[in-house]
Amino acid sequence: MQKNRVCVIGCGNPLMGNDGAGVLTMRLFEGKFPDVDVIDGGTGGFGLIPLMEGYEKVVIVDAMVGIGDRIGDVLTFEVPPSWDLPAYALHDIGIGEVVTIARELGYASDIVTVGIEAGEIQAFSQEIDPAVEEGIRVAGQVIQRILQEWTGKSASIS
Fold first, then answer.
1. In terms of pLDDT, which residue wins out, 12 or 94?
2. Of 44, 71, 95, 122, which is most buried by a Cβ count within 10 Å?
3. Do residues 44 and 91 make contact, with C-beta atoms less than 8 angstroms apart?
4. Angle at 50 between CA 21 and CA 157, to 5 degrees
């Protein structure tokens, strides 16, 4: 399969409640933009770096803790999230570190991170807080705009 030059990588664990927000957001784009690959990044960490190989532009979407004022807030980072933020990832390293390493290694020229404030992460739950569900919808709209700008094409994700 030939790769496209743009991809969306969703991170998180859908079996840990709100932590699944990134993967659920990523799924909104499956089959919607023919020039965009959609990749399940699992729980992220170092494993994200090889997933970016061969792409010019990457969107990473993940549930994060401590980035927003309230549960469901969506923040977009065009530069890696600060390493000084409170712990916002359940991964071996956070998204900010992954993006910094990927850029240093010469992967993707554009990497945008979309974070959804997850609040409490519950172990062994598939329930998503209603505010996080709204955050997933908003993050989908944000990513849709990014992809339209990058590809010059539009698609409905509803």
1. 12
2. 95
3. yes
4. 35
Minimal CA–CA distance to 92: which of 52, 49, 46, 42? 46
pLDDT at 80: 65
Residue 75, classified by CB atoms within 10 Å of its CB into exposed (0-12), middle (13-18) or buried (19+), is middle
How far apart, in whole angstroms, are the C-alpha atoms of residue 83 and residue 29? Answer: 29
Q: Which residue has the tokens 């999230």?
A: 81
Integer CA distances (angstroms), 18 to 52, 62, 115, in order = 24, 10, 12
d(CA 127, CA 32) in angstroms, rounded, equals: 26
- Burial class for 69, CB neighbours closer than 10 Å (0-12, 13-18, 19+): exposed
- Separation between Cα atoms, residue 67 and residue 89, nearest integer Å: 11
Tens-place pLDDT, residues 108-158: 779 999 999 999 887 788 899 999 999 999 999 999 999 999 999 988 886
